[in-house]
Amino acid sequence: MGETDSREVFGEALARLYVLAGDPPLKKVASTATSLQRRRAPTGAAVSAQRISDWRRGRSVPAKFESVLPVLQVLVAEARKRTPEPPTDGLYDLSVWSLWWTQSQKSRTDTAVPAYSGECPYPGLAAFTESQSALYFGRSRSTTTLLDRISEARRDGSVLVLVGMSGAGKSSLLRAGLVHAVRDGRIDGVSDVDVRTPRAGIVPADVDADAMLVVDQFEELFTDRTDVDARSAYVAELVALAEHVPVVVGLRADFYSRCLEFPGIGVALEHHSMVLGPMTDAELREAVVEPAKTEGLKVEPALVDTIIAEFGSRSAGSSASTALLSSGDRRAGRLPLLSHALRATWSRRQNGKLTAAAYRAVGGAAGSVAEAGEAAWRQLTDAQQRASKTLCMRLVAFGTDTDDSCRRRTRAELLAGFERSAPIEDVLEVLAAARLVTIDAEYVSFAHDAVLRAWPRLARWIEQDRDNASQRQRVEDDAEAWLQHDRAHEFLYRGTRLAAAQLWSGDAADVPPVAAEFIDAASARATRTRSVIRAGVAALAVLAVLATVSTAAAVVESDSVATQRDDAVFDEVLAKSDRLLESDPSLSAQLLLVAQRSRPDDPRLRSRLIGTELLPLAAAMTGHVGAVYGVSYSPDASTVASAGADGTVRLWDVREPDSPRPLGVPLEGHTDFATSAVFAPNGTVFATASGDGTVELWDVADREHPVRHSMVLDDDAGPAYQVAFAPDGKTLAVAHEDSTVRLWDVADPDVPRPIGGPLRGHAGAVRTVQFSPDGRTLASGGDDNTVRLWNTTDVSRVTPRPVALTGFASVTHSVAFARVGSLLAVASDDGTTRLWNVADADAPTPLGPPLPAQSAASWSVDFGSDGKTMVTAGKDGTAQVWSLMDPARPVRLGAPLTGNGGGLLTTALAPDGRSVVTAGDDGTIRIWQTPDAVQQIHRGPARALSFASARSAFATGSYDGTVALWQRTPEGAVAQTTSIPVSAGQDDGQSVELTPDGELLAAASTVGGPVRLWDVRDPADPIARAEIPTEARFTSELAFDPAGQVLLAPSDDKSARLWDVRDPAMPRPIGLPLSGFDGFVTDAVFSSDGRTVWVASADDTVRGWILSADGSNPTAIPVLLHGHSGDASTIALSSDDRVLVSASNDVVRVWDVSDPLHPEPLGRPFTPEGGAVRSLSFGRDDSTLAVAGSDGSIELWDFSDPANVQSIGPVSRIARAGVTVAFDPTGAVLSAVGQDGVLQTWTMDDPDVADRICRTTGTMLTEEMWARMLPNLEYDPPCR
């Protein structure tokens, strides 16, 4: 311990003593101490309040012990009154204080001098125990309620069940709350408590008459493979015992339904149970602050506010039961994470104070566990790291209808199959030292279920290995049942179950002996069975051609076994892909390519592959240890910078986003966590910031070999959270912990100079700063829940703008100005992102309501270079790209960017707008390629989509009152050629139809009025040609014949009319209206020769008309297509005119119309998954039908046999995605428009899909990852 450390220790001890003394006013202590001083030495110097403040903050130590002695006497006397016994030995002993003072004066620690130490008041992931009851706060209300419920259950002779989510604090309430209360005499006639888990069993004679039995972790009855009969006997014994002594069980909420199997417990759950919900804000504050006070520590108010923002906001009076039992409020289950984070924060305390900066430095609730896990991982050798995954998986009980949970194992069970050597034992010791696992005399277990989710590496292992581990768990359970039933052959596997088990057992390193014996026995029995079958076949065929029959039987048998194994492999890979879809969509997509090799035509695979086109996919960059707090792009988008909790800053070459690589070595120099790393506008100067309060400037002209320019430090400002360059690159703004923003002149980065004094105005730490594009405004936000705007027109005389941005419920964590335009975005810990128009920075205008960007704290926001897109990221582990076509109503562009192991803390959009970078708690940086297939094309809901067959053009209509024309480039990009304003009405939707040659456009309004025609031979300059009058008020369906000469348009709401539009300036009606309907006309389609037209109606029917060669004299087909139970809302006709499909509500009917005069039903009606059908379209060769449902999903159906259609599967499940769906004329591209005005596009060509997956995710399937995930397949990655 050096001199600085010794002084800090002296200051911390003094700070703790000050808290124990009741935190008296400094001036009062100084006055009393001065009086004591002058009694001994009348001429002695007075003790000043400032000197006491400096001493307890560790800024200095007294030059003489006599100077501090009277202060100690005053504080010790006051502390004894409040807390007679000190929480730390020596804290009230002046002779020990003399030794501590001596230690603080030395440049090196004298080992003979006892060092000051204190106990951490937080247990971490473990539950509170009775011995820690003095530190157990925040649950007095729950303890009292529990005592009352126990008394009620006792009167009825019933078990009392305490129900709560994993991590809600059940064990702590039982062990530190209830046990302490009982032994304090708070339940009459009960003086002792016997606490057990189900593994310990029950011996009624062992439970004293005046004792209470508490069975904690009752769910172990189900997770530890207890025999069903033994389980029932245990519960019966427990219920019987409750008639004589109080019995309390603690149950995890997701096992609630499992307990209903047992009548005695079921009755208890109905009449005698208590649900432990989340703490109220007041209780949470008490649980954080009071244990610290007991140990003489202080908790910074900003830390309490941060924790309440993250964990609180649930009132005591609300009913937690429903939400809790349906997993509706996950905050109830995060207390172990909080306790672990507070323990880690305590290890970084400053002068006896727990600070918000330290809490963030350790990664907060989830990040602290992640950091502990990664720190433990780094201590292991390569061999130990490989073994540790198997070890950890054995400690997980994989849930099916329940969440995953910890599985307790004996040491022998856990280490079975490993070589008996010290290295694997060392893995356990390392994990135990990190407090991730607990080891007692008999069992090993993870410290808490929370570890399974909060340590990203472990969470990834669990998801990646779920099917393998679940199979292992099933085989182990079934093997145990086989043993318990005396190895009865009825319990052995056969057929596909045996094939799957044999496939799994190929990974021999992790097959327990009992499972291996079970599979061997099943395999042997299957072999014997096959021999008997063969013998029987031979006997029957002895009079025939014996050899031929035997050979055929063997071939069939061999093919059957091979097919079963192939099926098992394919299903295994597909299941792994599905499991990873949300947690790691990029890896999920690559596994689909692996599955494609064995079953390229499987419809289940095809829909999944097509669906990846709308997924944002990413390549990952690893290297940081712990969380990453800041990322940014260089101005040319070629480089990403990252700043992490490990104190390093790293540069990455992302010119090829699918294969990013590190540039040079990590930049080191900061002594604490790095918070921010940004490029100057010229791209050659680079600034980094850190929790140590420093800012470093670097020359990155050669990004492989950065050179440090200089370092700036303001001793009094505290941690530096973010830095931002002004647009001219000459000024740098720094956000600090001390509530200030500091400006630096960095025109010469070798000699940075402070500009003016600190900018003051915030009432808490400043977390974020950003300059406007013109450099005239600086925005800052922080812990006071506000954003302040500063006039930086003259940086030497910065003044606050008159209006602060308020209304946030929590910390304003990130601000961003659009690079063009006048938008300012603010992301807050309250989960919202808000937009302002700051064209007049003195009077900013809010745009729209707060955007619910994340389901947890929103930590980061950034704009694209054009100001039309925005990305947000937050602690819920997701990022979302938004379209700002209408900034007052941002629209989500595609699915969230998921697959992040923990919360996201930072994000940035590339200047070229082609990629997004995210990073956060798991320390992994991801470069996302957002799909080109998703873009907003209308400000309002889009309802119509029409393709021209002769051009790569299409038209869309919207409820924003516009019609638009679009062109698709050979590369697949979509560009608008023109937008035609038709109506200003918000409810005025536009139907559109293009002639096949793309030269004439028709549009009709959903609220009636004329049909308008435009000449669009020059799409950039449409010419209005004519208006066709109608009497329709609600219908607007349009259809052109294949020649583009006849238009079907509404006549009135219940009829349609044909128009000759060969001269679009003079449209001419053809014949009489197509009538006879009793409901609105809903859809229409022409045959490929133009001689037949089919029209659907809300009267539940579809009618047809035959047209003459010149289109005149339409003759009604005498047969109606009926059978629908509601409106026939949409129809589609195959390109060969043989098959018509019609939809009503959620049922689709298929018709054989090869003879239009005699249509017949074809096959059976089918029901898509997406609710009421809104739109239908046939694809290439009429073999695929696309269906748009009312829930916004798009589903594909296989029509290769129209009499027996089969679902291929959904390609999109995004809500509001598809109202209208249409294939382009080639049938190779599917497009959909929806209620959010977004256009989505899918290509049906597998090579194009596979190419995108590989281009965006790169070579992520390494040989090591392959061996973990696909141990039974030879390494052959799909992307190279």
Characterise this structure.
With 1280 residues, the chain is an alpha+beta fold. Among the domains are: 3-104, no CATH class; 130-279 and 307-350, Rossmann fold (3-Layer(aba) Sandwich); 363-464; 547-616 and 1256-1269, no CATH class; 627-760, Methylamine Dehydrogenase, Chain H (7 Propeller); 937-1035. Helix content is 29%, strand content 27%. It contains 30 helices and 68 strands. The strands form 18 sheets. A five-stranded parallel sheet has the order 2-3-4-1-5, with helices on both faces. A hairpin with a 3-residue loop joins strand 23 (731-736) and strand 24. The two termini are 52 Å apart.
Dominant shape = globular
Number of E-type strands:
68
Q: Quickly give the structural class.
A: alpha+beta
Q: Treating each run of at least 4 consecutive H or I residues as one helix, how many helices?
A: 30
Percentage of residues in strands: 25-35%
Give me a quick take on this structure.
This protein is an alpha+beta fold and about 1300 residues long.
Which features does this protein show?
single chain, 1280 residues, alpha+beta, Rossmann fold, 5-stranded parallel β-sheet, 30 helices, 68 strands, globular
How is the secondary structure organized here?
Elements: H1 3-20, H2 26-40, H3 49-56, H4 65-82, H5 94-104, H6 140-155, E1 160-164, H7 170-183, E2 192-196, E3 211-215, H8 220-223, H9 228-241, E4 247-252, H10 256-259, H11 263-271, E5 273-275, H12 281-294, E6 298-299, H13 301-311, H14 321-325, H15 335-346, E7 353-354, H16 356-361, H17 364-378, H18 382-393, E8 396-397, E9 405-406, E10 409-410, H19 411-415, H20 422-433, E11 437-439, E12 443-446, H21 450-454, H22 456-464, H23 466-484, H24 495-504, H25 513-540, H26 546-583, H27 585-598, H28 603-611, E13 617-621, E14 628-633, E15 639-644, E16 649-653, E17 661-667, E18 674-679, E19 685-690, E20 694-699, E21 707-713, E22 720-725, E23 731-736, E24 740-745, E25 753-760, E26 766-771, E27 777-782, E28 787-791, E29 799-800, E30 812-817, E31 823-828, E32 833-837, E33 845-851, E34 858-863, E35 869-874, E36 879-883, E37 891-892, E38 904-909, E39 915-920, E40 925-929, E41 934-936, E42 942-947, E43 953-958, E44 962-968, E45 974-981, E46 990-994, E47 1000-1005, E48 1011-1015, E49 1023-1028, E50 1039-1040, E51 1046-1052, E52 1055-1060, ...
Parallel strand pairs: 1-4, 1-5, 2-3, 3-4, 6-7
Antiparallel strand pairs: 8-9, 10-12, 11-12, 13-40, 14-15, 15-16, 16-17, 18-19, 19-20, 20-21, 22-23, 23-24, 24-25, 26-27, 27-28, 28-29, 30-31, 31-32, 32-33, 34-35, 35-36, 36-37, 38-39, 39-40, 41-68, 42-43, 43-44, 44-45, 46-47, 47-48, 48-49, 50-51, 51-52, 52-53, 54-55, 55-56, 56-57, 58-59, 59-60, 60-61, ...
